[in-house]
Amino acid sequence: MRNLVELILKYHFLIIFVVLQLFAFYLLVSGNNYQNNKFTNLTGDVSGSVLEHYHNFTNYINLNEKNDKLAEENAFLKQYEKYSLKKLFSDKVKIEDTLYQQQYLYMSAEVIDNSVSNKKNYILINKGRINGIMPEMGVISSDGVVGIVKSSSDNFSVIVSLLHIESKVSAFIEENNYFGSISWSGDDERSLLLNDIPNYVSLKKGYHVKTSGYSSAFPKGVPIGIIKSFERVENGSFYNIDVEVSTDFRKLSHVYIVKDLMKMERQKIMEEATLND
Amino acid sequence: MISEIVRYLISLFALLLVQIFVLNQIEFAGYIRPYLYVLFLLLLPIEIRGWLMLVIGFSLGLIMDTFTQTPGMNTSACLVLVFSRQYLLKLIAPREGYETGQLPRPEFFGWKWFLIYSSILVGIHHIWLFYAEVFHFKYFFSTLFRAIFSTVFTEVLVLLTVLFFYNSSKAK
Fold first, then answer.
1. Residues B115, B159: contact at Cβ < 8 Å?
2. Which CATH number fits domain A169-245: 3.30.70.890, 1.10.287.180, 2.40.10.350, 2.40.128.10?
3. Residue pLDDT, tens place only, B118-146
4. Would residue B170 count as lying in a domain?
5. A236 exposed, middle or buried (CB, 10 Å; 0-12, 13-18, 19+)?
6. With an 8 Å Cβ cutoff, are A28 and B80 in contact?
7. For chain A, which residues lie within 8 Å of any Cβ of chain B, measuring from their own Cβ?
8. A30 contact residues in B (CB cutoff 8 A)
9. What is the pLDDT of residues A245-265, one digit of tens each?
10. CA–CA–CA angle A239, A242, A247 (5° rounding)
11. A111 to chain B nearest CA, in Å?
């Protein structure tokens, strides 16, 4: 027993190092978990509120440009307002529209911290659990897809940016309807990879890549980017396609969180279907 | 003694401010990311006990991780830095050993000594950090290049900071 105590005393430096290092690795591994992690749930509010003050301060610098962009978007949305539509029939006919039902709701949020230079980039926004934000919700900007919510504290959420080497978004090419998946190589913050497009499809530079709507994170047709270049892989059956991102991640300031009202229904029927297998 | 601790706390606070609000916000050529905050660990007195250094390194890393949403990354790298520091200090000690009151700064041991001391530790910290971030050897070489370039950049910042803020005339 005395020897043991002596041994511990003698190597206490090494022992403390190993214990603390193990703890750090525990954080590292559990934090690498793509979805939801406890660390940001715990610390998000602390760092979030500090970074938000900073953001509020620096936000003034780009205010003009941002206002222009929001005004532009407002103008675009106005065309869908009721008063912008012309009535084609007399008002005696009552139309009960059962063709359309609201499926997606959008909530705006401000980006308060963002990076593009890491291999795994995250974005911090100023809306959280009390605003109804949950993991796996999609995040878009007025230009296109931004990422997917990873975890939320009460007032803040962390988003896995499209610029994250493990991010994956289901996409399709608008011009020919072929679908594949979008990922990031980790090198250039302006370009993404479109995978799984078979090499017998004819492609052109400038084709539009949009979300496929296969996952409940994004509605169908949110822009991701346009095809910049492509090449056939030797001995492979797929293309290598470079896609230029439509979202400028360096300038990101306002984002929208997508809430799918039919997510539960979609999940339920998927579960039922797979259970019967 | 108390005033010494206050002085270290102020320098810690300043380094954290610069790191979080300036260096973390600016992108240097896309690849390079300087981590000047490790300078705090480099400059702590030589006679601080090993276990205390580990606790300080651990806490500093944890604070940084809180602000960059990277659980464990900086914590792990800071622990490795502190661990190597204890052995490196023994390795490059002057022949007659350290005297009490001597600090690991150029004013005590010269610029050449400090350059070796700081670049080795910054290098170890950065290489560990960049691999911990990717957590994979898939990007072995690109990660290595990023780590090396960032080390050079941090080292330049370290030398400049020491030159302007820690190079007082009380050198012997």
1. yes
2. 2.40.10.350
3. 999 999 999 999 888 887 777 788 888 88
4. no
5. exposed
6. no
7. 12-13, 16-17, 20-21, 23-32, 37, 39-40, 43-44, 46-47, 50-51, 54, 113, 115-120, 122, 124, 158, 165, 186-189, 250
8. 71
9. 998 888 888 888 888 888 888
10. 140
11. 13
